[in-house]
Design brief:
Elements (H helix, E strand, L loop, with lengths): L1 E3 L1 E3 L2 E3 L6 E4 L6 E5 L6 H18 L2 H17 L1 H12 L3 H25 L5 E2 L4 E2 L6 E9 L4 E4 L5 H15 L3 E4 L5 H11 L8 E3 L16 E5 L2 H12 L4 E5 L5 E4 L8 H15 L11 E4 L4 H12 L20 H14 L3 E5 L20 E5 L7 H4 L6 E6 L3 H6 L4 E7 L3 H11 L3 E7 L18 E4 L6 E4 L9 E9 H7 L3 H4 L2
Parallel strand pairs: 1-5, 9-10, 9-12, 10-11, 12-13, 14-15, 14-19, 15-18, 17-18, 19-20
Antiparallel strand pairs: 2-3, 4-5, 6-8, 7-8, 8-23, 16-17, 21-22
Helix pairs in contact: 2-4, 2-5, 3-4, 3-6, 4-5, 8-9
């Protein structure tokens, strides 16, 4: 069995017993083991601060972009290998594995392009210069500069490639060194991605921790950043732990994402077909283990029967089992703990909703009998969505969603307490205007599905590097990506005032860079 090491202080090292075991969630076969016991995490932080930070800050944005470009190309060359690992350790179908791997590759490439556009700068202006004196000569500007610390990345189990790459792309381009820690259960892809990328980066710029974080977080200070993706319970503990130390924390947590069908959308229309296909896909892609997956579906009362019939028809075509089998279209959830939690969540939802497909999640999977962490897609219909509590409070992180009839969907959407994305399907401009403005304060992103975007859109479940990823309230209150906005987490905004010519010499304005 393979032993996965950690990349610390520019070398691969292996921890001591006890080891955690990584398994194939389709067969429960052990794949690898890993441990961080006995590793010197204090020395790793010192190395990042003393070597990685200065090395990155010395580079221009264009040079940092070249690093990301090289990593993206190297991952593309190893794409088939990474896909195979994702299928083994993540239980992904080939399509789901490609979604993760290709998303990571594309995000690195996007930030590489942004670096090239920024060129020879080492700091970014925020807005225009402001005249402070009698003449324009005495002025002030705001700059974004790299923080003088370490970015600790704690990634979730569901996207080991994309999660690692999207956080790393923003931090590297911003000029901040990284210690990246994937979820242990699915770390095989992140380990290989790091093995490929680490030699391409300056010394100390990227380190990789495979296993428990030990006392790493207790060693952080005010110049450091933690970017966390995971449960709201763990996020709460991190807020308490890091708040006392002054480290900056960004959280992406639970999200009860909703899909809303407008009253103008009729069965058989292009917008209807888009709604049905995208909701069914986001319910089942990666076995529903996506932070952007649809959990609640709101339709007009006179469309409830049609929507239920159409979604049940789509879900009945799903084949659950070992993704190494060509006929399988949905694999298992990632761990036995995830399977237990999904089944418990279905039982809670059943107290206020009726399952119309999938029952309690039990499924006869296309896999060896008695093996694997398999669950059926489950669609429930809420009995009284306005009085419901569970569907608006508890995220079931699997292929499970609740359908509900509502004449005022925006009110129910907001009951979710804040989400990463809400998708609204309509061609009625007035309905969209009112709905979007009503739900906007509760979301990081709103996706509009209409007949005009059919054939162009990648759907609400695809996180794009050009747009913000994150959300308020229940979703954690964090923000990632969003083009250059993604660099702000790793930067300090500072006001600088003085002679305008000196300010321009420190950080040229955009129009000066073009000349």
């Amino acid at each position: 069995m393979k032993t996965l090491g950690s990349y610390l202080q520019d070398r691969w090292v292996t921890g001591k017993e006890p080891f955690a075991t990584l398994v194939n969630p389709s067969t429960e076969e052990p794949l690898a083991q890993t441990s961080t016991a006995g590793l010197d995490l204090g020395a790793a932080l010192d190395h990042a601060r003393a070597q990685g930070g200065p090395a990155l800050r010395e580079l221009t944005f264009a040079q940092r972009g070249e690093l990301l470009k090289a990593w993206s190309k190297a991952l593309h060359a190893a794409r088939d290998e990474l896909i195979a690992l994702a299928m083994q350790n993540g239980g992904n179908t080939r399509g789901d594995a490609k979604f993760d791997i290709d998303g990571g590759i594309a995000t690195l490439a996007h930030y590489a392009d942004l670096g090239a556009q920024l060129g020879g700068l080492q700091a970014l202006r925020d807005g225009d210069a402001v005249q402070l004196g009698r003449t324009a000569r005495y002025a002030g500007i705001h700059l974004w500069v790299p923080r003088d610390g370490v970015a600790v990345h704690i990634n979730a189990f569901n996207f080991p490639a994309w999660g690692t790459a999207e956080k790393a792309a923003c931090a590297i381009l911003a000029g901040m060194p990284i210690i990246s820690k994937p979820a242990t259960s699915t770390a095989l892809v992140a380990w290989r991605l790091s093995e490929i990328g680490a030699p391409l980066l300056p010394r100390g710029a990227f380190q990789f921790l495979c296993g428990s974080p030990g006392d790493l977080l207790d060693r952080l200070g005010p110049q450091d950043v933690v970017a966390f993706t995971g449960s709201s319970q763990t996020a709460g503990k991190l807020r308490d732990q890091l708040g006392r130390r002054g480290a900056r924390l960004n959280v992406e947590a639970d999200s009860l994402n909703a899909a809303v069908l407008g009253p103008d959308v009729a069965p058989g229309s292009a917008s209807w077909d888009l709604f049905v296909s995208e909701v069914a896909r986001d319910l089942t892609q990666k076995a529903g283990q996506k932070c952007t997956a649809v959990r609640r579906i709101f339709v007009p009362p006179d469309r409830l029967g049609d929507a239920q019939e159409a979604l049940v028809d789509r879900l009945s075509q799903i084949r659950v089992g070992d993704p190494s089998r060509p006929e399988v279209t949905m694999g298992p959830v990632s761990t036995s703990d995830q399977l237990r939690d999904v089944r418990a969540g279905i039982q809670k939802l059943a107290t206020e909703a009726q399952a119309v497909f999938g029952g309690d999640g039990t499924v006869q999977a296309l896999a060896p009998e008695g093996k694997g962490y398999f669950v059926s897609p489950v669609l429930l219909v809420a009995r009284d969505p306005a009085a419901a509590r569970v569907m608006h409070q508890d995220e079931v992180f699997g292929p499970v969603a609740t359908l509900a009839a509502s004449s005022s969907p925006a009110e129910l959407v907001r009951r979710g307490g804040g989400g990463l994305v809400c998708s609204v399907y309509s061609d009625d401009r007035e309905f969209l205007r009112k709905c979007v403005l009503a739900i906007a304060p509760y979301h990081g992103r709103i996706y509009l599905g209409s007949e005009k975007v059919v054939g162009q859109t990648m759907g609400p479940g695809t996180v794009l590097p050009q747009l913000l990823h994150g959300g308020p309230g229940h979703a954690g209150g964090g923000e990632e990506l969003g083009g250059l906005r993604g660099l702000q987490l790793y930067s300090q905004r500072v006001a600088v005032q003085g002679d305008r010519a000196l300010l321009d010499a420190i950080a040229p304005a955009a129009e000066q860079r073009k000349t």
